[in-house]
Specification:
Blueprint: H1 3-18, H2 22-25, E1 28-32, E2 38-42, E3 46-53, H3 57-62, H4 69-79, E4 85-92, E5 103-109, E6 112-117, H5 130-134, E7 140-147, E8 152-158, E9 164-171, E10 175-181, H6 188-191, H7 213-225, E11 244-250, E12 256-259, E13 265-266, H8 270-277, E14 286-290, E15 295-301, E16 312-318, E17 324-329, H9 332-344, E18 355-357
Antiparallel strand pairs: 1-2, 3-6, 3-7, 4-11, 5-6, 5-11, 7-8, 8-9, 9-10, 12-13, 12-14, 14-15, 15-16, 16-17, 17-18
Helix pairs in contact: 8-9
Length: about 350
């Protein structure tokens, strides 16, 4: 019998026998090694999860049996302002903790909010949208993003005051990408070298990290959220198959914020735009607010190309290359005012000394 077939039988058997623990038993494939030792193989540990909690997320998750549909729909509309959303069949935290592109699952519960979105997959904590984090104001915010195909792991915790307490992003290809704040108790043994990656093939290069990201990822998920995808179930683990989530299909964005570093932000909020403008010249070289159809606004920091240092160059195009205009401003506040006004189509946003240019 193949590993895949055995894993499938195990999942079906364990769901009948072990309930909540089936998410651990049913996703392990056990294979007899050459020495008779038993090894396990992951069948797909993936998460794209953001949680807001009043205190302990694990405790709130145990009581998350029914979400507020109206509040959930309103939340998603705020996350992606102006985007057309289509409600689809409800899902669960177990099945939809890593949604496909174009889908989003969420639930607003008493003391707990859950968001699962492809946008949160393989994301550095520093790139999580400020507009999404702002929805967790006054609450503990947890990000967990893990992908078994690339051995990618990122997690982060923000306090009730919005300050970052801990963030980590690692993968074997890129190494330690982000490592901020004091390490949490569940991490310490990994950094101390007590969870090395065993490599039975002496001809292969050693694993480039002192631990396997997915092993740490499961412990992080258990400690921060009270459940696991494939790890050993923590005591009192809730049955995440019984935690419902509202499903939404996302239509194509009408606005996209592109930036010199980081993935594009679809349907950005004013807070998202303002935060990215604030990084021009300090991490970002340029921003483009693309409205589609040759309509866009872009800005670049000075000191590069033909832009004088200390200047920010803003350009807009109005549907045709012959309608391309430029102005230079001296402060990020000016750039932010222009971008926010353009996004909201406010009167007077373009009251600047624009010069028509041909490009």
């Amino acid at each position: 019998m193949t590993v895949t077939a055995w894993a499938g039988l195990t999942a079906e058997f364990c769901r009948e026998r072990f309930g909540a623990c089936a998410s651990w038993f049913g996703r392990r494939a056990y294979v007899a090694g050459g020495t008779g030792a038993v090894a396990w193989a992951r069948m797909g540990a993936k998460t794209a999860l953001l949680v807001f909690a009043d205190g302990d997320a694990a405790g709130a998750l145990r009581d998350a049996a029914e979400f507020d549909r109206v509040a959930t729909t309103e939340l998603v509309a705020r996350l992606l302002p102006g985007l057309e959303l289509v409600a689809i069949e409800d899902g669960s935290l177990e099945r939809n903790v890593n949604p496909s592109n174009g889908l989003l699952y969420a639930g607003v519960f008493r003391g707990l909010t859950i968001i699962c979105a492809a946008e949160l997959g393989e994301i550095q904590p520093c790139f999580v949208r400020p507009g999404w984090l702002a929805e967790g104001a006054g609450r503990r915010v947890v990000l967990h993003s893990m992908h078994s195909a690339s051995d990618f792991l990122a997690f982060a915790v923000w306090g009730e005051d919005g300050s970052l307490e801990r963030s980590l992003c690692v993968s074997p290809d890129q190494g330690i990408v982000e490592d901020r704040g004091d390490r949490l108790p569940f991490e310490l043994a990994y950094w101390a070298g007590r969870h090395p990656v065993d490599d039975d093939d002496e001809d292969e290069e050693p694993y480039p990290l002192p631990f396997h990201p997915l092993e740490l990822g499961e412990d992080a998920l258990a400690a921060l959220c009270g459940f696991v995808v494939e790890g050993w179930p923590p005591d009192g683990m809730p049955d995440v198959a019984r935690v419902p989530l509202a499903g939404f299909r996302l239509r194509a964005p009408t606005v996209t914020l592109e930036r010199s570093h980081g993935r594009p932000i679809a349907q950005p909020s004013p807070l998202d735009v303002g935060s990215q403008v604030g990084q021009l010249g300090a991490g970002l070289d340029f921003l483009i607010l693309d409205m589609g159809g040759e309509n866009y606004l872009q800005a670049a920091a000075g000191g590069r190309s033909d832009i004088p240092a200390g200047i920010f160059r803003v350009e807009r195009r109005e549907g045709d290359s012959d309608l391309h205009f430029r102005c230079d401003v001296e402060s990020l506040e000016d750039v932010a005012e222009i971008f926010r006004g353009y996004l909201a189509n406010q009167d007077g946003w373009g009251d600047r000394e624009w010069k028509q240019v041909w490009v």
